Amino acid sequence: MALNKKIAIPLLVLILAAAGGGGWFLWQQKHPGTATDQKVAQGKQLYTCSMHPFIIKDKPGTCPICGMELIKKIDGAAGGAQTAEQNQQGEMLGQVSMSANQRIMANVATIEAKNGTLNKEINAVGIVQFDQSRQAKVTAWIAGRIDKLNVDTVGAQVSQNRPVAEIYSPDLLATQQEYLLAVKSRDQLKNSPISSISQNGDSLVASAKQRLVLYGVKEKQIAELEKAGKPNIRLPIYTPLSGVVIEKMVQQGQYVNVGEVLFNIADLSKVWVEIDVFENEVPFVRVGQQVEIRSATEHGAVSNGRISFVYPFHDPKTHTVKARVELSNPGHKLKPDMFVNAIIRMPLAKGIVVPVTAVIDTGKRQLIWVEMSPGIFEPREVQVGERIDDKVQILSGIKVGDKVAVSGSYLIDSESQLKGGGGQDHSKHGDKPETKGQTPATPAKKDSLKMDDMKM
Question: Cα–Cα–Cα angle for 304, 310, 314, nearest 5°?
Answer without folding.
Answer: 130
